[in-house]
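Case 287 in the screening queue. Each case pairs one protein sequence with one candidate compound; here the compound is iron/sulfur cluster. For every case the pipeline is the same: read the inputs, emit a complex structure as tokens, and attach any notable structural observations.

Predict complex for case 287.
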Amino acid sequence: MVLKKVKPFGYCKGVNFAIQSLHKIIKQFPNKQIHLINLITHNRKTNKELLKNKNVFFHEGKDRKKIIENILKKTKNRKKLLFILPAHGTDPQVIKFIKENKCQYYDFTCGYIKFMINKIKNALVENYEVYFYGKNNHPETQCIKDTFGKKLNVFWQKKDLKSNNHKKFVVCQTTTNYQDFLQIKKWFVNAVFEDTICGFCKQKQKQACNLKNSKNSIIVISDAKSNNGIVLFKLLKTNNKYVYLLPPNLTKPIKIKKTNKIYVFTSSSVSKQQANIVLEKQFKSLA
Ligand code: SF4
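Case 287 output:
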């Protein structure tokens, strides 16, 4: 049996940059309170490891301004505070609020998300009615909603769409299934589509499509909350028989069909090292 690790194996560039930078910040500022405003990445194992540092704190919630307000209320010395804003993006009003309160912060919004935000801004300037195709409870969608408010329409189903003759501009969450994005084109009569799926997700989805009708087993290592990991898993599952989702914090091996080759995918928020540990644990049952 040969194990085929599908490349890129491990974190995507956006998550890798955020995690590596955060490790440096933790070393550089041992006396600061480092507050993660929402998950740095969709990987509970990574977050748990980060929280082993006594000066790192984690806050989850939709209203990021409120979270920061509460932290400020509880802190006498604001110079001790350091805020970390995640790869999924943060509303500029929240950043403004941090600056007004003269606190230190690092914004790790991924370049692909910044690119998509600029596309939306330009389309609004050109007087388009802008639509964002994204999962309602996902942090990236939350960032887009908070940033643009009523100027933008967020949709996930056909029924969420307004029907009028205004010129429309459609973008999507960076981790969307490309095939779904093609399908939603049918929901619009007259619209400009800008595919804003990130390079990492597109590459992985393409590789998943190339494995159509494989007789081999396929593993996806991903947290159940990672959108790109779940998109990949569902895509593979539609076209193949033996597809398995393994969490990065796998404790017990699961039953996997033994085949000549086993393909292994990782989501963007699982590191190479974490994936190798999962495989080591899993392989004991395959030997
Ligand atoms: S999955 Fe794509 S958009 Fe999200 S952080 Fe990684 S590279 Fe950026």
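Case 287 observations:
- The chain has a mean pLDDT of 94.
- The domain at 2-11+201-286 is CATH 3.40.1010.20 (Cobalt-precorrin-4 Transmethylase; domain 1).
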